Here is the input.
Amino acid sequence: MRITPIEIQQHQFKSRLFGYDTTAVDQFLELLADELEQLHRRNNELKESLARTRTSLEQMREREKLLQQTLVTAQKMTDELKDQARRDAEIVIAEAHIEGERILRDANERRIQLVSEIQEIKRIRHSFKNSLRALIENHTQLLDMDMDTLQIDMDNHSAKVQALFADDISDDDLLD
Here is the structure.
């Protein structure tokens, strides 16, 4: 059974003839009551402090639990982001390989086309060169023929002029 400070203060002892000194007993009881009251107050303060500490501890445990869940969620999201970034990188690399192969294929086709064009240009150049050479030879022959004809004509005119001076030909021969 618990005794409170008020019960101690209100407790009455029976008096006897040769019993205890009532004043001393009352003073002692008063002292005891004060001490118990202080202990009772201190006990209540400690209970309240303990309750606050328990509440605070429970809040901290809830926060810790929430933080752990947040960390786990953040770790999962980080892993997912890494996986997504890895997949995106693989896609970009695959697309780059495909694009690179396409560029190489286009470059090779263009190279083949250029080689073909170069061969066609060489063929045209060769044909032009041969045509030009033939044309020059033809013109040279024409020039040579004209020179021969001109030489013959000059020789004829020269002979006619000499004959004119020599009176070997008539005026009709000069008109030819």
